[in-house]
């Protein structure tokens, strides 16, 4: 009996030790996993907020760069920009043109506002009281145009921002620093309007040292903060730069309110700093669940189960072994997922930076000094559409490449119905697809000028072949426009020449030439298939998109 009791006691002690060890391990694992998941979710959220803020600041810079020698007295300065700013598809509330008017220009500005059909064309202060021109001795900032125009916004032009402390400080800083600047949080449109921020970009005419005015975009704070729903791991708060010890929070309906913080209150689980409009903004993240308490509850449950099955000698060791193996595999999968997510984010950031660099180059080259603004705007929109089309095709294929014939779609290539396309339907790499998409657009956009005036159009052929033996196969591309000559074909732009002669051949590791025959214009491109297909890029993308599996 004593021996049996000793054995039972030994088994009970062993079961208690194993149960306690399992509970301790589960506690640590759950706590570590919750912290990792929360930290990763916060990092991803902060990165997305920074990316969205950068896009909106870039919109202001691009919009200010599209102005050429602006006249501050024109009340329709945003007219050439309307299609461009909507092409960015950002969620701004109001875009505005704020002119910096000298005292001698106030009467002419008031007449221009009246001629434009604004219901209150008088030059007024921010409280809507008329300004006596004789009392103005310094230049003042006056809202002359805005977008969108509605019954509510049409009454705003004519107001001066000099007596509004928030907007005046923003414009003064933008004028002094000559860069885009964001304001403090402020109600938009009206006193009880949605809380948001305004970013202003100065418009400096060529040869001038002072801005002629400012392009402004206002955004609701809730959309900038990317507030989460009830299923998220955390809630987001923005530190209020106007008052120490207060935060701005947004409800599920997007309504922003202010709350005070105290030293005795809960501290944020993490804080992140983002840059927007030339200033730093601090986001506070509050975890919605208590990780330590949940880990303790899980550990208690595991310990109770271990004590309950201690009497089952045969099942005890099998259960503990199986449970530990399952937990280990789940941890490996979750850790592998976190590593894969980091790799995907890094790859996405790299591709977004490349695309933004290409767009910046396109905008800079297209809107160079001396170019016709109407032609430049059409070319700019067309080139961006070509880039958008190839990015859509790459997204559909998970960046595994694009079928070459798919780049000749009518929505991205002008006169696509007159292009006879032939050649093997090979899948080119992402880098090659972006270069070829811009190349095809540039060739097609210059193919219908002189002859179209007499009712004729050039017949265009685009064909390609692959010659040679592996691994030294060569890609040959030939573009030929019949019924055209050097006298009838529109000359290529500076950007087009750089793209045709240098950028596209260098991107594909090949060479190109263009010439006129007696009856046609010809462009030829030769490159090794190794760079056109680029299997190393596909392998890397395929590896990133592969599903995470537990280690065996």
UniProtKB/TrEMBL annotation:
InterPro entries linked to this entry: CHASE_dom, CHASE_sf, Sig_transdc_His_kinase_HWE
Catalytic activity: ATP + protein L-histidine = ADP + protein N-phospho-L-histidine
Main location: membrane
EC number, as in UniProt: 2.7.13.3
BP terms from Gene Ontology: signal transduction
Keyword vocabulary terms for this entry: ATP-binding, Kinase, Membrane, Nucleotide-binding, Phosphoprotein, Transferase, Transmembrane, Transmembrane helix
Keyword Lipoprotein: no
Keyword ATP-binding: yes
Residue spans crossing the bilayer: 299-322
Region named Disordered: 249-269
Lineage: Bacteria, Pseudomonadati, Pseudomonadota, Alphaproteobacteria, Hyphomicrobiales
Coiled coil start-end: none
Protein name, as recorded: histidine kinase
UniProt GO MF annotations: ATP binding; protein histidine kinase activity
UniProt source species: Bradyrhizobium manausense
Cellular component, GO, one term: membrane
Uppermost EC category: transferase
């Amino acid at each position: 009996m004593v021996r049996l009791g000793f054995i039972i006691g030994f088994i009970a002690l062993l079961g208690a030790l194993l149960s306690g060890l399992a509970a301790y391990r589960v506690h640590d694992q759950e706590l570590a996993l919750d912290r990792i998941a929360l930290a990763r979710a916060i990092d991803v959220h902060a990165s997305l907020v920074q990316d969205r803020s950068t896009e909106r600041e870039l919109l202001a810079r691009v919009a200010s760069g599209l102005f050429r020698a602006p006249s501050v007295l024109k009340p329709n300065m945003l007219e050439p920009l309307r299609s461009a700013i909507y092409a960015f598809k950002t969620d701004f509330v109001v875009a505005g043109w704020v002119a910096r008017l000298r005292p001698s220009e106030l009467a002419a500005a008031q007449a221009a506002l009246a001629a434009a059909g604004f219901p209150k064309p008088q030059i007024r202060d921010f409280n809507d009281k008329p300004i006596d021109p004789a009392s103005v001795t310094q230049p003042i900032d006056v809202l002359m145009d805005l977008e969108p125009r509605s019954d509510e916004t049409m009454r705003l032009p004519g107001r001066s921002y000099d007596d509004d402390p928030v907007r005046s400080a923003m414009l003064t800083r933008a004028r002094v620093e000559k860069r885009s600047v964001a304001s403090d949080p402020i109600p938009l449109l009206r006193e009880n309007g949605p809380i948001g921020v305004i970013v202003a970009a100065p418009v400096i005419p060529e040869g001038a040292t002072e801005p002629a005015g400012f392009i402004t975009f206002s955004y609701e704070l809730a959309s900038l903060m990317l507030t989460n729903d009830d299923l998220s791991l955390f809630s987001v708060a923005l530190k209020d730069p106007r008052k120490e010890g207060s935060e701005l929070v947004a409800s599920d309906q997007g309504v922003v309110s202010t709350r005070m913080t105290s030293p005795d209150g809960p501290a944020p689980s993490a804080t992140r700093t983002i840059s927007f409009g030339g200033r730093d903004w601090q986001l506070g993240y509050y975890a919605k669940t208590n990780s330590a308490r949940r880990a303790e509850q899980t550990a208690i449950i595991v310990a109770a189960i271990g004590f309950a099955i201690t009497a089952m000698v045969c099942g005890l060791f099998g259960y503990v072994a199986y449970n530990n193996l399952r937990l280990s595999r789940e941890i490996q999968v979750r850790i592998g997922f976190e590593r894969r997510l980091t790799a995907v984010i890094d790859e996405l950031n790299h591709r977004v930076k490349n695309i933004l660099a290409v767009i910046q180059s396109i905008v800079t080259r297209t809107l160079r000094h001396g170019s016709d603004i109407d032609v430049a705007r059409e070319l700019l929109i067309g080139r961006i559409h070509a880039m958008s089309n190839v990015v859509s095709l790459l997204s559909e294929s998970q960046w595994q490449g694009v079928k070459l014939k798919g780049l000749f779609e009518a929505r991205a290539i002008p006169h696509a119905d007159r292009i006879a396309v032939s050649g093997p339907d090979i899948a080119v790499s992402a880098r090659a697809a972006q270069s070829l998409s811009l190349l095809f657009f540039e060739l097609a956009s210059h193919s219908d000028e002189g002859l179209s005036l007499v009712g004729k159009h050039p017949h265009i052929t685009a064909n390609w072949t692959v010659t040679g033996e592996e691994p030294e196969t060569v890609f040959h591309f030939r573009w030929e426009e019949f019924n055209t000559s050097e006298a009838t074909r529109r000359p290529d732009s500076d950007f087009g020449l750089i793209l045709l002669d240098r950028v596209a051949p260098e991107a594909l590791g090949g060479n190109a030439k263009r010439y006129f025959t007696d009856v046609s214009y010809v462009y030829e491109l030769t490159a090794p298939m190794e760079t056109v297909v680029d299997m190393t890029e596909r392998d890397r993308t395929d590896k990133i998109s592969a599903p995470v599996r537990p280690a065996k």
